[in-house]
Amino acid sequence: MELLSLMQDQVPPFPSETAVKIVEEELGASVNEIFDRFDFEPIAAASLGQVHRARLNGQEVVIKVQRPGLKELFDIDLKNLRVIAEYLQKVDPKSDGAKRDWVAIYDECASVLYQEIDYTKEAFNAEKFAENFKKLDYVKVPEVHWKYTTPQVLTMEYVPGIKINRIQQLDKLGVDRKRLGRYAVESYLEQILSHGFFHADPHPGNIAVDDVNGGRLIFYDFGMMGSISPNIREGLLEVFYGVYEKDPDKVLQAMVQMGVLVPTGDMTAVRRTAQFFLNSFQERLAAQRKEREMTTAELGFKKQLTKEEKFEKKKQRLAAIGEDLLAIAADQPFRFPATFTFVVRAFSVLDGIGKGLDPRFDITEIAKPYARELLRFNEAGVEVVVKDAKKRWERQSRAFYNLFRQPDRVEKLAQIIERLEQGDLKLRVRTLESERAFQRVAAVQKTIGYGIAAGSLANLATMLYFNSIRGPATIAYSLCAFFGLQVLVSLIKVKKLDRQERLITGTA
Hints:
This protein has 17 helices and 11 strands. The chain has helices spanning about 1-5, 15-25, 30-35, 70-90, 100-115, 120-130, 165-175, 175-195, 230-245, 250-260, 270-300, 305-330, 340-355, 365-380, 380-420, 430-465, 470-505; strands at about 35-40, 45, 50-55, 60-65, 140, 155, 160-165, 195-200, 205-210, 215-220, 225. It is extended, with a radius of gyration of 30 Å. The chain is of the alpha+beta class. Keywords: Membrane, Transmembrane, Transmembrane helix. It comes from Panicum virgatum (Blackwell switchgrass).
């Protein structure tokens, strides 16, 4: 991981002469005429460009210069990625219950990447990001110099800092690392839940720290940003409240509202799974609180679980909800928007940064007080009070309406029972265990069928070959090879089904 992290901001620069030529062509004058000083040696280089320091009208600035020929390179690579996305769309088994739209994910990534090579777009993003955080003193965004900014050249205020993963240097600076980790997570919760506009590439090369206000986060590189629609943002807030209130119905309703969950005929398995994860989440928080209390009392750390113990716990969790997970996998009710890819990636990177700053970092513990604050804020908001009153009125109206419909419903229920008794209506009972057994039997039968076909074709091809009928013999051998391959694929499927069964029953 340490070697991979070096790749985030240590890319070989391109020749400074080329950079100067691009700057002069874009700005329409020589660097000596525009700047008081221009450093030919770049201070940083990345895959899309490199950064030079300069002095402009007495102020220290940085000039970001785009690598030459980048647009043409993007066109070629993204065409190839489009082909891969279309292939994945066809072959993805979706065995985890999520119906991913690989082409939509590709389109979102391509859009973000093309925006990243337009530096005027990045400048707009930086200004919008700065405006969103103008009231928070722990976030700093460099100021844009628009007069000296074009699609290939970006001029910004020079704001030096220490990379957020340089632990020893941060300690020398005297900042509170634990607080920095909390600030990083809170700033992202603010971006996603409040602003709907977030930094989609928060690796340590794009976040630095200085000693202003006891430790301030400096964000760089605003080319890769994500936007969340008001509908999705409101849904995420509702999910937040549902988790906080341990209400699975509220969580599921919010997911339906966002379009993440498509209601199927039977939502029982989804609801039970949601309830299980909410209970597990609460148990985890309680265990962490207890662990912290023990650590404080004993001035030590709790012994970490071994790999075997972690695997055993995972087996127990799967065994508890295995059948529900299989039902979800069969129905595939989940549809994940492409934007979620960037949200999940951002929080994964932040989790890594947080654990580097503080070994006991836990993103859920940081999010919990933030959720409380959101709840207090929302409880005080007139808009939310009106919305809640509207929901209550709708519930009361439905209850009043249903009161007068009860006799009709009782009569309709009696008619359904009568039709069941007469055999006019059939009741379908879903037995997941039987479904799994039939699925395995079908896979085994298919394997046997392919095996018989391969054996028969091999026998036929051999007879034809020895009778010097070479053309048909070649065709028979080819078909034999095809069916032999199908046998291998079917055997792998049977093995996979057996492994799923063992995980569900806890015998793996």
